[in-house]
């Protein structure tokens, strides 16, 4: 079984107090699909411009991504530039060039519409709905979102929610969506908007999964040094969906373990700029940290 | 075996966006000793003034506290008043009256000096050292501290650290003490200052214990509503030390479970003002939430 991954394929220019890295491979679909590639074959749905470096296409291929759904369009690749503060938690966007993503409206192949697992990584809710409209009876649909869409596209996002099996968002976004500061109190309100499962990401503090079996309070892998957290949320959801796609048995049974595999994949993402670390690790590195983390939470 | 608990016995006036509660029973030793009382007999070492309500002494007695070390001195009881912001995480001190605690210098009885477990709850490092000086070969000594002492009594605090088995502090205090923002990177630096075990409290995000067995990444019990977090850290360490005191076998073996019992005791503390909830629960309530939390972290 394999996984459809829709999202942005971008160039990211990232400044931290310690370094500056221009035009790195980035975007929600790049991070999510590479993270998923350790467990399954991700089918990437995205668009790049004619400035997109060949080497990044090669990197996608090296990770076994199916690129039938990656369009190269005339124009600029989506480009985000941002700057992190000293504590590496707060960031601000310096510039955004939408480029070819602005009018991207993919038409899926028959094979793509039959993929059972669907990851709608962070992008405009209209684009997420457009792709979901084309899918034929998917087994499990997850979407990620961000504050930007809550601010400028709340209506299409609310329309999308009942069509999802699982919504992933961070704690401040959960508070904004539910109009409730306490994430535990926000969860039932978000379920009422549609999704059976809700995952609230808390960065270095882990994540909380809410579903029919109750709450899963998941730790993050403790990192001594965070070099660049850009894409960690995308890696998290990519690793999660990749692992889930690769497992037999019920979603309910596999979701917690999948989430932990997502957490660990994301931990590697934070240890270097862009995808530099994630594209150097092996599946065995993920397994090793999953085992370590499992020892760190036992009492 | 039983537990010595040194700290403040205070009156707290607490304002939140939703309510105002004057002259509640508070103080680090009150919270810690009541929390410990579910598991062992805490011997309270503290001082109150002649304005200290009789009903609070009765409450201590109801919880089985040994009050041989509680002095009633002429003057005012230590009084703290503070105000919480909307999110219940940020608070500011409105007023502090030290009262009788200012010149409190306890002399322990022979029986008290032989207690095997010692909890130096949050108070001046000089007072913590004074009591520790009088103890005869304690089995396990834990101290809590706060930013105030890091600011105005760093030297006596640093002098105390090598005499502790375990130091407990919150994430921002850990950063301040270690001069390192990342708590995982701060831990080895704090170990170098003396304590074999270090616990970094992260409030609603749980805690991290560092010791010879490595890291223990502990969750917090997810609460839908936090009414008043005052004393949660004291309840945490009190529940932890109470449980540890009550268990057979090595500290190393029991510390993780003790920490979880501390976390759960602290969860109740947050659900009402001051000690109002903690003084209403039974040990079975703690056991119930420990069991629930244990299911919430399994994968």
User: What is the number of helical segments of chain A per DSSP (H or I, 4+ residues)?
Assistant: 11
Q: Give the termini separation of chain A.
A: 36 Å
Low-confidence stretches of chain A: none
**Widest β-sheet, arrangement of strands of chain A:** 5-4-1-8-9-10-11-12-13
Q: What portion of residues of chain A belong to β-strands?
A: 15-25%
CATH H level, superfamily name of chain A:
Ribokinase
- Would you identify the CATH architecture of chain A? 3-Layer(aba) Sandwich
Mean pLDDT across every amino acid position of chain A: 96
Q: Biggest sheet of chain A, open or closed, and with what strands and sense?
A: 9 strands, mixed
Main CATH class of chain A: Alpha Beta
**Biggest protein-protein contact in the assembly:** A-B, 33 and 33 residues
Q: How many domain units of chain A? A: 1
CATH topology (level 3) name of chain A: UDP-N-acetylmuramoyl-L-alanine:D-glutamate ligase
Structural class of chain A: alpha/beta
Helix content of chain A: 25-40%
Rg of chain A (C-alpha, Å): 18 Å
Quaternary status? homodimer
Shape field of chain A: globular
Number of beta-strand segments of chain A: 13
Topology as H/E string of chain A?
A: EEEHEHEEEHEHEHHEHHEEEHHH
Structure description:
The structure is a homodimer of 299-residue chains. Helix content of chain A is 37%, strand content 23%. In chain A, the strands form 2 sheets. Chain A has a 9-stranded mixed sheet, sandwiched between helices. The radius of gyration of chain A is 18 Å and the shape is globular. In chain A, β2 (10-15) and β3 (20-26) form a beta hairpin. Chain A is built from 11 helices and 13 strands. The termini of chain A are far apart. Chain A has a single domain (3-296), classed as Ribokinase (UDP-N-acetylmuramoyl-L-alanine:D-glutamate ligase, 3-Layer(aba) Sandwich). The first copy, chain A, has 299 residues and is α/β, with parallel strands linked by helices. In chain A, α7 crosses α8 (183-192). The mean pLDDT of chain A is 96. Chain A has helices at residues 28-36, 54-62, 110-113, 125-134, 147-152, 154-160, 171-178, 183-192, 232-246, 251-269, 283-296, and strands at 3-6, 10-15, 20-26, 42-48, 70-72, 79-84, 91-97, 117-120, 140-144, 166-170, 197-201, 207-211, 214-218. Chains A and B meet through β13, α10 and α11 of A and β13, α10 and α11 of B.
